[in-house]
Amino acid sequence: MSYLAGKRICISGGGIGGSAFALALEQACKLSNILPRPTIKIFERDPSISTQENLGWSFGLKAEGGSGGLQVIRQLERGIVEDLEQLQEPGSGGHICWRTPYNSMVSFTPKKDKDGNAIDIDSLRIMRSHVRRTLLSRVPSESVEFGKVCISAEPARKPGQPVQMTFADGSTEECDLLVVAEGANSRLRAALLPHEVNRYAGVCMLFGRTGRLNELPKGLWRGPHISLSRTSTTLFMGLVDKNTVLWSLSTKDPETRAAELRDIFQDPKAVQDFMDKELPELAAGFKEPLHSMIRETRPSSLSAFNAIDKLPHPNSGENGIVYIGDAWHPMSPFSGSGANMALQDAWELAQQLVNGGHSNTQAAISEFATRAAPRSVEAIERSHKIIGVAHSDGLLKLLIVGLMSLVGFFIRPIASFKSLDWRSFWKLSPGSKMDSKPMSRQRTLEGLRSACGKARRKPAVLLIWQMAYLAGKRICIAGGGIAGAAFALALEQACKLNGISPMPSIEVFERDTTVATQENLGWSFGLMSEGGTGGLQAVRHLERGILEELEALQEYGNSGHLCWRTAYKPLVSFSAKRAKGRDPQGFDSIRIMRSYVRRALLSRVPQEAVHYGKVCVSAEPACKPGEPVQMRFSDGSSEKCDLLVVADGANSKLRAALLPQEVNCYAGVCMLMGRTGRLEEVPRGLERGPHMSLSWADTTLFMGPVDRTTVLWSLSFRASESRAAELHTLFKDPSAAQAFKDNELLKLAARFQEPLQSMIRATRISSLSAFPAIDKLPHSNTGANGIVYIGDAWHPMSPFSGSGANMALQDAWELAQQLVNGGHSSAQAAISKFAQQAAPRSSGAIDKSHKIIGLAHSTGLLKLLFVVLLTLFGLLSRLKLELAYTYTAMSFLAGKRIAVSGAGIGGSAFALALEQACRLSRITPLPTIKVFERDANASARENIGYSFSLREHADAGSGGLQVIRQLERGILEELEQLQEPGNAMHICYRTFKPLFGSPASRDKKGNIMTQETLRIMRTHVRKALLARIPPEYMRYGKICTSAEPAAKPGDPVQIIFADGSTDECDLLVVADGASSKLRAALLPQEVNRYAGISMMFGRTGRLKQVPPELLRGQHLLLGKTSTSLFMATVDKNTVSWGLSSRMPHSQAAELSNRLKDPAAAQEFMDKEVPKLADGFSEPLHSMIRETPASSLAALPAMDRPPHAVHGNGIVYIGDAWHPMSPFSGSGANMALLDAWDLAQQLVNGGHSNAQAAISQFAAEAAPRSLGAINSSRRVIAVAHSDGLFKFMFVLMLRIMGFLTSLGSTAPYWVWRSPGRLLPSWRQPAATAAQKHAGGFVSLQSVLKQKPHLA
């Protein structure tokens, strides 16, 4: 009953905004199943789609900040991004030059691949016409009417009435919603809103395009260039393709100049005269190659126009008309955001109309406009500043050029200071402490050299990745099967995303002669997404398009069936489940041929990286770290590499040569396989999916459809290893294979009923094969000699495990992630960690396959009992008892009692994560979960505590937001509504003028986020988690004071409470915070350490207005002495602040106790707090005066490394295990990570008991928490330093703030005072536009607040 159902939506203009909106709305309506679908019609003035094919200019399609056009393209119909990538301009770096593109002053160097080619996944430089054509070509042809110019419209007089459109040819149309998307010179806007006129930005732009050149100018290959000159003229020059150059000269001219030039360009003779005389004079301020390019320019390509813009007007949609893109907020090219804004407008309007939860169109449009208007105002402001700087002259131009030259020539090596190895800068080892003594000049220089390496005169790139152990290395993969191809893709993808430069060289050596050699060989398998068989998860993570291709190739039927002698009557059926929390339109498994998966993966590996017909037979390991591995091939050739990945399958030649003792083990079963020719139809019953049929004998049948006309079958039976080898050899002879098929094979098949015999008779002799079922437990795989094994080369598995290919995919993905994202110092450390995680998983799968072989090939009484049991299960499952995965009922958690002491963030997150994991894994009976919390109810501490940043990144201490995303749906959305206003982080010195900060970006809903973070009160997170825990789990008012550990495995844990009562559980999770009573009782030696700092917190009452500088985000102010200040908004009317300073532990404890007395707190507020705040500027003193004494609190900064005791039925998580000071910024994030990881290890870790799961959890989590604690100590030392050290640190922050503003799209220059520029990251939410009712603002109101725009 959507208000869009059956409506007529008309779009005036088929440009980028209009065509993108048509696609986005159609896609959203399909996904939301709106019926009947709205009719979407585009009216475009051009006579055809290719009218503007070679007109216009190029632009940067970006993925960040307010210019997220590339994000929209990625979310639109499949294939658009791929098409645009093929059409992007050569070179994607940005360069600011002085008079010529040959010598860059400042370069924004893109990431590079192994061949040195630029790759920038966050932007595409492309012609506007290419984007328009690509989008418009995907709109259904019947939805586009070309040659129709809409010149006016009659708005709807009241809701429900139609809008009347009038066209230039006199015709009219009616619609329910009119979307105006016809560009900056919109006729409809001029007719309906004549007062909303475009404004001249002060610059005239002249464009030209060369003909096809024989040779491109040197330097232009690097990407587009902006060249400044001595005068107020600026040059832009970039490549259109490999033979064409686009150039533009912009000058400060009267508004009439562009019209004069356009008149000249209408006369061929006048154009030629202009090119011969005036144009060379205009270009006189620039050097070659501009003059050569002008001579090669076609006169017909010349064009001129004024740079114009206009602030967005009210756009409520109350009259059935809505404006998007340049029709609403035209922008000059200097904003760099016009087309990106049009794409974002199109996507967000479609989402608000369909998915915004509104009751009518007008409400959806109002919400869209409220979100989009501030973004466009910011872009227009930025374009004015760029125009002013780029077209300046005199002293200001001299200062700008001098500053850029200084940056480009002298300080390039530290242009990415944010990514430096600070441990090497501070000369600290992982476990060492940092003192607060000022650093000497020599020590400072040594630290800089260590952090910057040898990159002192290299281009500005991410230096930390230049020093990565993978950078520039050669990675060779022996084997182009599923594991090898997947690893090549996963490693390349991870290196690109992490900006490793130079990229490692990745090469695959494959024995087959082409990718299609094994096209019709092999068998099918289930690509699954859960537990230890998560191959589908790996495919989802890999390059786009793989999953879609495999879904199109999956076998006919996707359910599994266990049968008795025939496929017609299943005993038990395993219906394919929908993928929960992953792909709402897909299943959690895909049945597919192995050869299809291999081809899909290998075809996406760059062809120059795959060497076919190369069989690696041996290798010489590296003698010591840093030496190469020598590979030898069957043709006598050899290759050297830095890391050799062995992925050549179960019968690995390399493993046999290097580890001859690691031989495969026969699993006791021989397998015969065959594939039918094309059948008229698949036999009845097989259309439901693959079947496994049992018989009275020790023979088992597998049969499944490959497609609608082909069937794959396999007979397995017990045989000696010699017999299996004999049959394997027999099928290599066609005549012997035919004889075996006619005699022995049909006799073997007689144990089963039809349709097996019919399928055997229809089987092609060439498809028959036999092989022994083999497996082998994983061997030691440390990578110490430069060689690592993955997939079947490491742990071959029989098909009965159902996990071989899935394991190979998981190995490939996880090894790549450990190498790139594991935070290791060497490849060997990464490989060791990978092997430690992967080996238990593969061992478990091999054990499972042995059990399946034993049951499926049993005889006599065991077979009878097995069949009876399956029959009962089948009957029960038909009664909806959901016993499809009954083996999970045997989990060690089934029916157990889990107690959680403490319902803070860690405890409540663990309860939710465990309940969710058990439910998804169908553990029956479910474990009983009890949460014991000292508070009387969930809202007892509603307004107590401080805020923290929930972060996205997977580095140490930063993965809390990832956990929230994976927990029950709705938590993230609730927290996004509660996040603090302003989300950027600013580091300042004594005042609130930022020295350095982290850029604020937007999330998918338009809310401000910083590096994928949410700044939020701890109490809000705790409340959101507790609200989703079933009430029967909670036990409020219960304080756990002690416990009696289990005497032996299987015995219960006795819990003792403060009220004298007791309880028992099988597993006790201690999550009662930093001052844990349970830890104090059970481990009295594990005491918290004082970090040397006392922190005092306060919170204002409700303010009439929050100081505007605080709306930008959180501020950390460094004091002149060893004092620091943190200040942030809690909501729109409240501010929290914290002062921290060095003092002895005894004094800090005394202060904490003193502030608990109201009278003493008031006295301290009146006398002592102003003295502490004396070194900081306003608004701190005003905020202190607004702070009630009752909100004051002080606490010593405490931490403690994680202890090593986990056992006896008790496990510790969060601050109860590793308390951290707030300076780590990671305490709550760590608690969330601990909670999620412990739950996953208990349920999905493949362990045989709780102790093994807890040990694995502790082994993974302890290093992470230790790193965060060491980091907090370093932050404390730096923030509370004084003297020369403080001076050096502040100076370094100033340099970092300046440099990062040049290399980032988020920061931009703000005029602070005449002649002075300082960098600032400002959130679009804090602009004047948001302060205006309805989200709109007049130009006059903006200029009053920001006179620099005038």
From TrEMBL:
FAD-binding domain segment(s): 174-355, 640-836, 1064-1247
Molecular functions (GO terms): FAD binding; monooxygenase activity
SUPFAM superfamilies: FAD/NAD(P)-binding domain
UniProt key word Amino-acid biosynthesis: no
Pfam families reported for this sequence: FAD_binding_3
Keywords for this protein: FAD, Flavoprotein, Monooxygenase, Oxidoreductase
Top-level taxon: Eukaryota
InterPro entries listed in its UniProt record: FAD-bd (IPR002938), FAD/NAD-bd_sf (IPR036188)
PANTHER family for the chain: FAD DEPENDENT OXIDOREDUCTASE DOMAIN-CONTAINING PROTEIN, MONOOXYGENASE ASQM-RELATED
Protein's name in the database: FAD-binding domain-containing protein
Source organism per UniProt: Apatococcus lobatus
